[in-house]
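Weekly structure sync - notes
Attendees: PM, LS, DV (DV joined late)
Agenda: review two folding runs queued last week.

Item 1: First target. Sequence and C-alpha coordinates pasted below for the record.
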Amino acid sequence: MQTSPPLSTQQLAAYSSFAQTLADRVRPLSRKWFRHPLDIDTKADESPVTQADREVETALRVAIAQHYPDHGIFGEEFGASHAEAEFVWSLDPIDGTRAFISGNPLWGTLLALLHQGKPVLGVIDIPMLDERWVGAVGASAQLNGVACRTSACAELRQAILYATSPDIFAGAELAAFEALTQAARMRRYGGDCYSYGLLASGHVDLVVESGLQPYDYLALMPVIEGAGGVITDWSGQPLSLESQGRVVAAATPQLHRQAMRVLGAAMT
Protein backbone atom coordinates (compact mmCIF):
# COMPACT_ATOMS: atom_id res chain seq x y z
CA MET A 1 0.00 0.00 0.00
CA GLN A 2 1.32 3.44 -0.93
CA THR A 3 1.78 5.71 2.07
CA SER A 4 -0.55 8.71 2.14
CA PRO A 5 -0.14 11.92 4.13
CA PRO A 6 -1.77 12.15 7.59
CA LEU A 7 -5.41 13.11 7.69
CA SER A 8 -6.23 16.76 8.18
CA THR A 9 -8.34 18.06 11.04
CA GLN A 10 -11.14 18.69 8.57
CA GLN A 11 -11.01 15.12 7.24
CA LEU A 12 -11.09 13.66 10.73
CA ALA A 13 -14.02 15.89 11.65
CA ALA A 14 -15.95 14.69 8.60
CA TYR A 15 -15.28 11.04 9.38
CA SER A 16 -16.19 11.62 13.03
CA SER A 17 -19.50 13.16 12.03
CA PHE A 18 -20.22 10.22 9.74
CA ALA A 19 -19.31 7.69 12.45
CA GLN A 20 -21.71 9.35 14.87
CA THR A 21 -24.40 9.31 12.20
CA LEU A 22 -23.81 5.57 11.92
CA ALA A 23 -24.19 5.18 15.68
CA ASP A 24 -27.40 7.20 15.60
CA ARG A 25 -28.75 5.05 12.79
CA VAL A 26 -28.28 1.72 14.55
CA ARG A 27 -29.28 2.72 18.08
CA PRO A 28 -32.98 2.04 17.39
CA LEU A 29 -32.12 -1.36 15.90
CA SER A 30 -30.27 -2.60 18.96
CA ARG A 31 -32.68 -0.99 21.40
CA LYS A 32 -35.71 -2.71 19.86
CA TRP A 33 -34.21 -6.15 20.60
CA PHE A 34 -33.00 -5.39 24.11
CA ARG A 35 -34.91 -7.30 26.81
CA HIS A 36 -37.03 -8.98 24.14
CA PRO A 37 -37.04 -12.69 23.24
CA LEU A 38 -34.09 -13.55 20.99
CA ASP A 39 -32.81 -16.57 19.15
CA ILE A 40 -29.28 -17.11 20.45
CA ASP A 41 -26.70 -19.02 18.40
CA THR A 42 -23.22 -20.09 19.47
CA LYS A 43 -20.28 -19.25 17.22
CA ALA A 44 -17.20 -21.37 16.67
CA ASP A 45 -15.37 -19.56 19.48
CA GLU A 46 -18.22 -20.39 21.90
CA SER A 47 -19.40 -16.78 22.05
CA PRO A 48 -23.12 -16.02 21.63
CA VAL A 49 -24.62 -14.16 18.68
CA THR A 50 -28.17 -12.95 18.04
CA GLN A 51 -30.21 -11.46 15.22
CA ALA A 52 -29.60 -8.09 16.88
CA ASP A 53 -25.82 -8.41 16.31
CA ARG A 54 -26.34 -9.35 12.66
CA GLU A 55 -28.99 -6.73 11.95
CA VAL A 56 -26.91 -3.90 13.40
CA GLU A 57 -23.75 -4.89 11.54
CA THR A 58 -25.67 -5.26 8.28
CA ALA A 59 -27.06 -1.74 8.64
CA LEU A 60 -23.59 -0.36 9.37
CA ARG A 61 -22.11 -2.11 6.33
CA VAL A 62 -24.83 -0.84 4.01
CA ALA A 63 -24.38 2.76 5.17
CA ILE A 64 -20.59 2.63 4.82
CA ALA A 65 -20.81 1.10 1.36
CA GLN A 66 -23.20 3.83 0.27
CA HIS A 67 -21.05 6.71 1.50
CA TYR A 68 -17.53 5.31 1.13
CA PRO A 69 -17.60 2.45 -1.41
CA ASP A 70 -13.80 2.34 -1.59
CA HIS A 71 -13.43 1.75 2.16
CA GLY A 72 -12.83 -1.70 3.63
CA ILE A 73 -14.79 -3.23 6.51
CA PHE A 74 -13.74 -5.59 9.29
CA GLY A 75 -16.71 -6.72 11.33
CA GLU A 76 -17.35 -9.23 14.08
CA GLU A 77 -20.26 -11.02 12.46
CA PHE A 78 -19.46 -10.94 8.73
CA GLY A 79 -15.68 -10.75 8.61
CA ALA A 80 -13.47 -8.63 6.37
CA SER A 81 -14.06 -7.11 2.96
CA HIS A 82 -11.44 -5.03 1.11
CA ALA A 83 -9.20 -5.21 4.16
CA GLU A 84 -6.29 -3.98 2.04
CA ALA A 85 -7.96 -0.59 1.49
CA GLU A 86 -6.38 2.66 2.69
CA PHE A 87 -9.39 3.18 4.99
CA VAL A 88 -10.97 0.29 6.87
CA TRP A 89 -13.89 0.41 9.32
CA SER A 90 -13.82 -1.91 12.34
CA LEU A 91 -17.29 -2.84 13.57
CA ASP A 92 -18.49 -4.52 16.73
CA PRO A 93 -22.28 -4.19 16.48
CA ILE A 94 -22.98 -5.27 20.05
CA ASP A 95 -19.94 -5.40 22.29
CA GLY A 96 -21.13 -7.30 25.33
CA THR A 97 -23.59 -9.74 23.79
CA ARG A 98 -23.69 -11.72 27.05
CA ALA A 99 -24.76 -8.55 28.87
CA PHE A 100 -27.27 -7.81 26.11
CA ILE A 101 -29.00 -11.19 26.30
CA SER A 102 -29.10 -11.11 30.10
CA GLY A 103 -30.79 -7.71 30.30
CA ASN A 104 -27.74 -5.76 31.47
CA PRO A 105 -27.66 -2.33 29.74
CA LEU A 106 -23.85 -1.98 29.82
CA TRP A 107 -23.29 -3.12 26.23
CA GLY A 108 -22.31 -0.92 23.33
CA THR A 109 -21.56 -0.47 19.66
CA LEU A 110 -17.91 0.01 18.74
CA LEU A 111 -16.82 1.80 15.57
CA ALA A 112 -13.26 2.52 14.50
CA LEU A 113 -11.75 3.97 11.35
CA LEU A 114 -8.30 2.72 10.43
CA HIS A 115 -6.07 4.70 8.09
CA GLN A 116 -3.26 2.61 6.65
CA GLY A 117 -3.81 0.03 9.37
CA LYS A 118 -3.86 2.39 12.36
CA PRO A 119 -6.97 3.55 14.23
CA VAL A 120 -7.49 7.29 13.81
CA LEU A 121 -11.07 7.49 15.06
CA GLY A 122 -13.03 5.55 17.67
CA VAL A 123 -16.60 5.58 18.94
CA ILE A 124 -17.94 3.84 22.06
CA ASP A 125 -21.71 4.15 21.94
CA ILE A 126 -23.86 2.97 24.87
CA PRO A 127 -27.43 3.09 23.49
CA MET A 128 -29.40 2.33 26.65
CA LEU A 129 -27.62 5.02 28.68
CA ASP A 130 -27.49 7.59 25.87
CA GLU A 131 -23.74 7.97 26.37
CA ARG A 132 -21.18 8.19 23.58
CA TRP A 133 -17.42 8.58 23.74
CA VAL A 134 -15.61 9.77 20.62
CA GLY A 135 -11.86 9.96 20.13
CA ALA A 136 -9.79 11.06 17.15
CA VAL A 137 -6.04 11.32 16.65
CA GLY A 138 -4.74 14.72 17.72
CA ALA A 139 -7.95 15.74 19.51
CA SER A 140 -9.35 15.48 23.02
CA ALA A 141 -11.77 12.64 23.61
CA GLN A 142 -15.35 13.63 24.29
CA LEU A 143 -18.33 12.22 26.13
CA ASN A 144 -21.57 13.48 24.60
CA GLY A 145 -19.74 16.41 23.06
CA VAL A 146 -17.87 17.48 26.21
CA ALA A 147 -14.14 16.88 26.66
CA CYS A 148 -13.33 14.07 29.08
CA ARG A 149 -10.15 13.16 30.90
CA THR A 150 -8.72 10.13 32.66
CA SER A 151 -7.99 10.30 36.37
CA ALA A 152 -4.62 11.37 37.75
CA CYS A 153 -4.10 8.02 39.49
CA ALA A 154 -0.39 7.19 39.39
CA GLU A 155 -0.20 4.48 42.08
CA LEU A 156 -1.39 0.91 41.60
CA ARG A 157 -2.33 0.66 45.26
CA GLN A 158 -4.85 3.48 44.70
CA ALA A 159 -6.26 2.15 41.43
CA ILE A 160 -9.78 0.94 40.71
CA LEU A 161 -9.33 -1.97 38.31
CA TYR A 162 -11.94 -3.48 36.00
CA ALA A 163 -12.18 -6.58 33.84
CA THR A 164 -15.22 -7.93 32.08
CA SER A 165 -15.01 -11.34 33.77
CA PRO A 166 -12.44 -13.58 35.49
CA ASP A 167 -13.42 -16.22 32.94
CA ILE A 168 -11.43 -14.45 30.21
CA PHE A 169 -8.16 -15.41 31.93
CA ALA A 170 -6.58 -18.87 32.13
CA GLY A 171 -3.33 -20.38 33.35
CA ALA A 172 -0.48 -17.91 33.60
CA GLU A 173 -2.78 -15.07 32.57
CA LEU A 174 -5.07 -15.70 35.51
CA ALA A 175 -2.14 -15.82 37.92
CA ALA A 176 -0.84 -12.53 36.52
CA PHE A 177 -4.26 -10.91 36.77
CA GLU A 178 -4.65 -12.08 40.37
CA ALA A 179 -1.23 -10.64 41.24
CA LEU A 180 -2.22 -7.33 39.71
CA THR A 181 -5.57 -7.12 41.45
CA GLN A 182 -4.02 -7.95 44.82
CA ALA A 183 -1.84 -4.87 44.40
CA ALA A 184 -4.74 -2.62 43.37
CA ARG A 185 -7.16 -0.77 45.62
CA MET A 186 -10.32 -2.34 44.22
CA ARG A 187 -11.30 -4.99 41.67
CA ARG A 188 -14.61 -4.97 39.85
CA TYR A 189 -16.09 -7.07 37.04
CA GLY A 190 -18.48 -6.34 34.19
CA GLY A 191 -18.88 -3.51 31.75
CA ASP A 192 -17.31 -4.77 28.51
CA CYS A 193 -16.57 -1.62 26.45
CA TYR A 194 -18.32 0.56 29.04
CA SER A 195 -15.40 0.10 31.43
CA TYR A 196 -13.12 1.83 28.95
CA GLY A 197 -15.53 4.74 28.66
CA LEU A 198 -15.51 5.03 32.44
CA LEU A 199 -11.72 5.03 32.35
CA ALA A 200 -11.73 7.82 29.75
CA SER A 201 -13.98 9.87 32.05
CA GLY A 202 -11.86 9.37 35.16
CA HIS A 203 -14.07 6.95 37.11
CA VAL A 204 -11.99 3.81 36.55
CA ASP A 205 -8.18 3.80 36.63
CA LEU A 206 -7.18 0.49 35.05
CA VAL A 207 -8.77 -2.07 32.72
CA VAL A 208 -7.00 -5.38 32.05
CA GLU A 209 -8.36 -8.05 29.73
CA SER A 210 -7.43 -11.00 27.56
CA GLY A 211 -8.94 -12.88 24.65
CA LEU A 212 -10.10 -9.75 22.81
CA GLN A 213 -10.40 -9.48 19.05
CA PRO A 214 -9.34 -6.40 17.04
CA TYR A 215 -12.92 -5.19 16.71
CA ASP A 216 -13.09 -5.26 20.53
CA TYR A 217 -10.19 -2.86 21.10
CA LEU A 218 -9.49 -0.78 17.96
CA ALA A 219 -12.29 1.71 18.73
CA LEU A 220 -11.09 2.06 22.32
CA MET A 221 -7.62 3.27 21.41
CA PRO A 222 -8.37 6.83 20.12
CA VAL A 223 -10.79 7.35 23.02
CA ILE A 224 -8.38 6.28 25.78
CA GLU A 225 -5.39 8.08 24.26
CA GLY A 226 -7.45 11.19 23.50
CA ALA A 227 -8.47 11.31 27.17
CA GLY A 228 -4.85 11.20 28.32
CA GLY A 229 -4.61 7.49 29.06
CA VAL A 230 -2.40 4.67 27.80
CA ILE A 231 -3.56 1.48 26.09
CA THR A 232 -1.25 -1.31 24.92
CA ASP A 233 -0.88 -5.06 24.91
CA TRP A 234 0.57 -6.89 27.94
CA SER A 235 4.08 -6.42 26.53
CA GLY A 236 3.67 -2.66 26.33
CA GLN A 237 3.47 -2.72 22.54
CA PRO A 238 0.92 -0.72 20.55
CA LEU A 239 -2.23 -2.63 19.71
CA SER A 240 -2.83 -3.58 16.09
CA LEU A 241 -4.77 -6.00 13.92
CA GLU A 242 -2.06 -8.57 14.69
CA SER A 243 -2.13 -8.22 18.49
CA GLN A 244 -2.85 -11.31 20.59
CA GLY A 245 -5.86 -9.92 22.45
CA ARG A 246 -4.26 -8.99 25.78
CA VAL A 247 -5.08 -5.39 26.66
CA VAL A 248 -3.96 -3.02 29.41
CA ALA A 249 -5.57 0.43 29.59
CA ALA A 250 -4.42 2.84 32.29
CA ALA A 251 -5.28 6.37 33.35
CA THR A 252 -1.66 7.57 33.44
CA PRO A 253 1.72 6.47 32.08
CA GLN A 254 2.96 5.94 35.64
CA LEU A 255 0.10 3.59 36.48
CA HIS A 256 0.58 1.77 33.19
CA ARG A 257 4.26 1.17 33.96
CA GLN A 258 3.44 -0.23 37.39
CA ALA A 259 0.79 -2.56 35.96
CA MET A 260 3.20 -3.75 33.27
CA ARG A 261 5.84 -4.57 35.88
CA VAL A 262 3.43 -6.71 37.88
CA LEU A 263 2.06 -8.51 34.83
CA GLY A 264 5.53 -9.06 33.40
CA ALA A 265 6.90 -10.49 36.63
CA ALA A 266 3.94 -12.84 37.04
CA MET A 267 4.08 -14.07 33.43
CA THR A 268 7.78 -15.01 33.53
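Item 2: Second target, run right after the first with the same settings.
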Amino acid sequence: MQIKDENAINLAVAVHEDEGAARWTHDDIAVEVPVALVYNYISHAVMMATPDDLQDFALGFSLTEDIIADAGEVSHIHVQSGKNGITVRLQISDERFEALRERRRNMVGRTGCGLCGVESLKQAIRVIEPVQSVAVTDEAIQKALAEVNQHQPLQQATGATHAAAWCDLEGHILLVREDVGRHNALDKLIGAFTKTGYSVHDGFVLVTSRASYEMVQKSASAGFGCLVAVWAPTSLAVEQAQEVGMKLVGFARDGRHIVYHDPDSEEQHEKARRAV
Protein backbone atom coordinates (compact mmCIF):
# COMPACT_ATOMS: atom_id res chain seq x y z
CA MET A 1 0.00 0.00 0.00
CA GLN A 2 1.31 3.45 -0.97
CA ILE A 3 0.84 6.65 0.99
CA LYS A 4 -0.58 9.69 -0.78
CA ASP A 5 1.84 12.55 -1.41
CA GLU A 6 -0.35 15.05 0.49
CA ASN A 7 -0.25 12.94 3.66
CA ALA A 8 3.53 12.99 4.21
CA ILE A 9 6.53 15.17 3.43
CA ASN A 10 10.11 14.01 3.06
CA LEU A 11 12.79 15.87 5.01
CA ALA A 12 16.56 15.66 5.23
CA VAL A 13 17.42 14.78 8.84
CA ALA A 14 20.57 14.15 10.86
CA VAL A 15 20.74 10.83 12.70
CA HIS A 16 22.95 10.83 15.81
CA GLU A 17 24.04 7.40 17.06
CA ASP A 18 26.21 6.87 20.14
CA GLU A 19 29.23 9.20 19.87
CA GLY A 20 29.73 8.99 16.12
CA ALA A 21 29.31 11.76 13.59
CA ALA A 22 25.84 12.64 12.42
CA ARG A 23 24.57 10.64 9.45
CA TRP A 24 22.32 12.42 6.98
CA THR A 25 19.31 10.65 5.57
CA HIS A 26 15.68 11.33 4.64
CA ASP A 27 12.60 10.77 6.79
CA ASP A 28 8.88 10.76 5.97
CA ILE A 29 6.89 13.13 8.22
CA ALA A 30 3.12 12.86 8.63
CA VAL A 31 1.30 16.00 7.49
CA GLU A 32 -0.97 17.69 10.04
CA VAL A 33 -3.22 20.56 8.97
CA PRO A 34 -6.07 22.60 10.47
CA VAL A 35 -9.44 21.43 9.17
CA ALA A 36 -12.42 23.74 9.65
CA LEU A 37 -15.87 22.14 9.75
CA VAL A 38 -18.53 24.54 8.50
CA TYR A 39 -22.22 23.66 8.82
CA ASN A 40 -24.40 25.54 6.36
CA TYR A 41 -22.78 28.93 6.97
CA ILE A 42 -21.47 28.53 10.54
CA SER A 43 -17.88 27.50 11.28
CA HIS A 44 -18.31 25.10 14.20
CA ALA A 45 -14.92 23.51 14.89
CA VAL A 46 -11.31 23.45 13.74
CA MET A 47 -9.49 20.16 14.16
CA MET A 48 -5.87 19.23 13.49
CA ALA A 49 -5.93 16.25 11.16
CA THR A 50 -4.34 14.26 8.36
CA PRO A 51 -5.62 15.75 5.07
CA ASP A 52 -7.14 12.53 3.76
CA ASP A 53 -10.62 10.98 3.84
CA LEU A 54 -11.99 14.30 5.05
CA GLN A 55 -15.53 13.66 3.83
CA ASP A 56 -15.54 10.52 5.97
CA PHE A 57 -14.12 12.55 8.85
CA ALA A 58 -16.76 15.27 8.58
CA LEU A 59 -19.58 12.75 8.43
CA GLY A 60 -18.25 10.67 11.33
CA PHE A 61 -17.58 13.74 13.48
CA SER A 62 -21.10 15.02 12.81
CA LEU A 63 -22.60 11.71 13.91
CA THR A 64 -20.46 11.14 16.99
CA GLU A 65 -20.80 14.73 18.20
CA ASP A 66 -24.60 14.51 17.87
CA ILE A 67 -24.80 17.26 15.27
CA ILE A 68 -26.80 14.89 13.08
CA ALA A 69 -28.61 11.66 13.93
CA ASP A 70 -28.33 10.02 10.55
CA ALA A 71 -26.03 10.34 7.55
CA GLY A 72 -29.05 11.18 5.43
CA GLU A 73 -29.33 14.52 7.23
CA VAL A 74 -26.26 15.71 5.32
CA SER A 75 -27.15 16.63 1.75
CA HIS A 76 -23.73 17.83 0.60
CA ILE A 77 -20.07 17.81 1.69
CA HIS A 78 -17.46 19.94 -0.06
CA VAL A 79 -13.73 19.95 0.74
CA GLN A 80 -11.75 23.06 -0.17
CA SER A 81 -8.02 23.58 0.39
CA GLY A 82 -6.70 27.06 1.21
CA LYS A 83 -3.52 28.84 2.20
CA ASN A 84 -4.11 28.38 5.92
CA GLY A 85 -5.70 24.93 5.92
CA ILE A 86 -8.70 23.00 4.68
CA THR A 87 -12.39 23.89 4.94
CA VAL A 88 -15.03 21.17 4.87
CA ARG A 89 -18.50 22.55 4.22
CA LEU A 90 -21.53 20.45 5.13
CA GLN A 91 -25.13 21.19 4.24
CA ILE A 92 -27.35 19.76 6.95
CA SER A 93 -31.10 19.70 7.45
CA ASP A 94 -32.83 22.83 8.74
CA GLU A 95 -33.88 21.07 11.93
CA ARG A 96 -30.36 19.96 12.75
CA PHE A 97 -28.92 23.35 11.84
CA GLU A 98 -31.29 25.13 14.22
CA ALA A 99 -30.32 22.69 16.98
CA LEU A 100 -26.65 23.42 16.29
CA ARG A 101 -27.24 27.16 16.42
CA GLU A 102 -28.98 26.77 19.78
CA ARG A 103 -26.09 24.69 21.08
CA ARG A 104 -23.61 27.36 19.99
CA ARG A 105 -25.62 30.07 21.76
CA ASN A 106 -25.28 28.07 24.95
CA MET A 107 -21.52 27.74 24.43
CA VAL A 108 -20.73 31.45 24.59
CA GLY A 109 -18.64 32.29 27.63
CA ARG A 110 -19.50 29.12 29.55
CA THR A 111 -16.57 26.96 30.56
CA GLY A 112 -17.59 26.07 34.12
CA CYS A 113 -16.12 22.57 34.19
CA GLY A 114 -13.26 23.16 31.75
CA LEU A 115 -15.06 21.96 28.61
CA CYS A 116 -16.26 24.62 26.21
CA GLY A 117 -20.03 24.79 26.12
CA VAL A 118 -20.51 22.71 29.26
CA GLU A 119 -22.03 24.26 32.37
CA SER A 120 -21.90 21.29 34.74
CA LEU A 121 -20.07 18.04 35.30
CA LYS A 122 -23.23 16.15 34.39
CA GLN A 123 -23.22 17.75 30.94
CA ALA A 124 -19.57 16.87 30.34
CA ILE A 125 -20.45 13.27 29.43
CA ARG A 126 -23.25 12.84 26.94
CA VAL A 127 -25.83 10.14 27.56
CA ILE A 128 -25.49 7.45 24.88
CA GLU A 129 -28.10 4.87 24.02
CA PRO A 130 -27.25 1.27 25.00
CA VAL A 131 -25.67 -0.91 22.32
CA GLN A 132 -26.03 -4.59 21.59
CA SER A 133 -22.84 -6.31 22.63
CA VAL A 134 -21.08 -8.54 20.13
CA ALA A 135 -19.66 -11.98 20.89
CA VAL A 136 -16.10 -11.55 19.65
CA THR A 137 -13.75 -14.50 20.12
CA ASP A 138 -10.17 -14.31 21.31
CA GLU A 139 -9.13 -15.82 17.99
CA ALA A 140 -10.82 -13.04 16.02
CA ILE A 141 -9.12 -10.36 18.11
CA GLN A 142 -5.71 -11.95 17.64
CA LYS A 143 -6.22 -12.35 13.90
CA ALA A 144 -7.13 -8.67 13.52
CA LEU A 145 -4.10 -7.65 15.55
CA ALA A 146 -1.84 -9.72 13.31
CA GLU A 147 -3.25 -8.03 10.19
CA VAL A 148 -3.62 -4.41 11.22
CA ASN A 149 -0.03 -3.28 10.61
CA GLN A 150 -0.20 -4.09 6.92
CA HIS A 151 -3.23 -1.79 6.63
CA GLN A 152 -1.34 1.25 7.99
CA PRO A 153 0.88 2.59 5.20
CA LEU A 154 1.11 6.07 6.70
CA GLN A 155 2.08 4.74 10.12
CA GLN A 156 4.69 2.46 8.58
CA ALA A 157 6.18 5.39 6.68
CA THR A 158 6.06 8.01 9.45
CA GLY A 159 5.46 6.34 12.82
CA ALA A 160 3.13 9.20 13.71
CA THR A 161 -0.44 8.08 13.07
CA HIS A 162 -3.25 6.07 14.64
CA ALA A 163 -5.56 3.64 12.87
CA ALA A 164 -9.16 2.58 13.42
CA ALA A 165 -10.31 -0.63 11.73
CA TRP A 166 -13.62 -2.40 11.22
CA CYS A 167 -13.17 -6.17 11.54
CA ASP A 168 -15.61 -8.97 10.90
CA LEU A 169 -16.36 -11.64 13.49
CA GLU A 170 -13.57 -13.84 12.12
CA GLY A 171 -11.01 -11.07 12.55
CA HIS A 172 -10.67 -10.06 8.91
CA ILE A 173 -10.06 -6.33 8.51
CA LEU A 174 -12.58 -4.86 6.10
CA LEU A 175 -12.11 -1.10 6.50
CA VAL A 176 -9.34 1.12 7.91
CA ARG A 177 -8.76 4.83 8.34
CA GLU A 178 -5.57 6.55 9.57
CA ASP A 179 -4.97 9.96 11.12
CA VAL A 180 -2.54 11.80 13.36
CA GLY A 181 -5.37 11.99 15.91
CA ARG A 182 -6.93 8.88 17.41
CA HIS A 183 -10.38 10.50 17.61
CA ASN A 184 -10.07 11.62 13.99
CA ALA A 185 -9.17 8.12 12.83
CA LEU A 186 -12.27 6.73 14.56
CA ASP A 187 -14.50 9.48 13.17
CA LYS A 188 -13.16 8.75 9.68
CA LEU A 189 -13.90 5.06 10.13
CA ILE A 190 -17.43 5.77 11.33
CA GLY A 191 -18.08 8.10 8.42
CA ALA A 192 -16.79 5.52 5.95
CA PHE A 193 -18.73 2.74 7.69
CA THR A 194 -22.07 4.46 7.04
CA LYS A 195 -21.49 4.08 3.29
CA THR A 196 -20.69 0.37 3.28
CA GLY A 197 -23.90 -1.41 4.19
CA TYR A 198 -22.10 -3.39 6.90
CA SER A 199 -24.07 -4.20 10.05
CA VAL A 200 -22.77 -3.09 13.47
CA HIS A 201 -23.73 -6.54 14.74
CA ASP A 202 -21.33 -8.35 12.41
CA GLY A 203 -17.97 -7.16 13.69
CA PHE A 204 -15.93 -4.99 16.01
CA VAL A 205 -13.68 -1.94 16.03
CA LEU A 206 -9.92 -2.16 16.58
CA VAL A 207 -7.98 1.01 17.42
CA THR A 208 -4.21 1.31 17.71
CA SER A 209 -4.48 3.83 20.54
CA ARG A 210 -5.64 3.87 24.14
CA ALA A 211 -9.34 3.59 24.89
CA SER A 212 -10.30 6.92 26.41
CA TYR A 213 -13.92 7.65 27.28
CA GLU A 214 -14.29 9.62 24.03
CA MET A 215 -13.36 6.53 22.03
CA VAL A 216 -16.00 4.47 23.85
CA GLN A 217 -18.52 7.29 23.50
CA LYS A 218 -17.93 7.69 19.76
CA SER A 219 -18.04 3.92 19.18
CA ALA A 220 -21.26 3.58 21.15
CA SER A 221 -22.87 6.52 19.37
CA ALA A 222 -22.25 4.67 16.10
CA GLY A 223 -23.85 1.52 17.56
CA PHE A 224 -20.70 -0.60 17.77
CA GLY A 225 -20.94 -3.33 20.38
CA CYS A 226 -17.24 -4.08 20.86
CA LEU A 227 -14.14 -1.88 21.00
CA VAL A 228 -10.64 -3.37 21.06
CA ALA A 229 -7.70 -1.06 21.86
CA VAL A 230 -3.99 -1.77 21.59
CA TRP A 231 -3.34 0.35 24.67
CA ALA A 232 -5.06 0.75 28.04
CA PRO A 233 -8.55 2.07 28.77
CA THR A 234 -9.24 4.78 31.32
CA SER A 235 -11.53 4.30 34.29
CA LEU A 236 -14.20 6.46 32.68
CA ALA A 237 -13.98 4.42 29.49
CA VAL A 238 -14.66 1.24 31.46
CA GLU A 239 -17.58 2.89 33.27
CA GLN A 240 -19.08 4.03 29.98
CA ALA A 241 -18.67 0.58 28.44
CA GLN A 242 -20.49 -0.88 31.45
CA GLU A 243 -23.30 1.67 31.18
CA VAL A 244 -23.99 1.13 27.48
CA GLY A 245 -23.34 -2.63 27.44
CA MET A 246 -20.26 -2.60 25.23
CA LYS A 247 -17.53 -5.22 25.25
CA LEU A 248 -14.25 -3.39 25.94
CA VAL A 249 -10.84 -4.94 25.37
CA GLY A 250 -7.49 -3.26 26.07
CA PHE A 251 -3.77 -3.95 25.99
CA ALA A 252 -4.34 -6.08 22.91
CA ARG A 253 -1.01 -7.65 22.02
CA ASP A 254 0.24 -10.68 20.14
CA GLY A 255 -1.03 -13.68 22.10
CA ARG A 256 -2.59 -11.62 24.91
CA HIS A 257 -5.37 -9.11 25.59
CA ILE A 258 -7.40 -7.98 28.58
CA VAL A 259 -11.21 -7.94 28.66
CA TYR A 260 -12.30 -5.03 30.87
CA HIS A 261 -16.01 -5.48 30.32
CA ASP A 262 -18.07 -8.16 28.60
CA PRO A 263 -21.83 -8.03 29.13
CA ASP A 264 -22.09 -11.64 27.96
CA SER A 265 -19.80 -12.76 30.80
CA GLU A 266 -20.96 -10.35 33.49
CA GLU A 267 -21.60 -13.09 36.03
CA GLN A 268 -18.05 -14.38 35.65
CA HIS A 269 -16.68 -10.84 35.90
CA GLU A 270 -18.63 -10.18 39.08
CA LYS A 271 -17.31 -13.38 40.71
CA ALA A 272 -13.77 -12.39 39.72
CA ARG A 273 -14.19 -8.89 41.18
CA ARG A 274 -15.43 -10.32 44.48
CA ALA A 275 -12.51 -12.74 44.60
CA VAL A 276 -9.85 -10.04 44.18
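Discussion on item 2: Confidence is low (pLDDT under 50) at residues 108-114.
Action: LS to circulate a short write-up before next sync.
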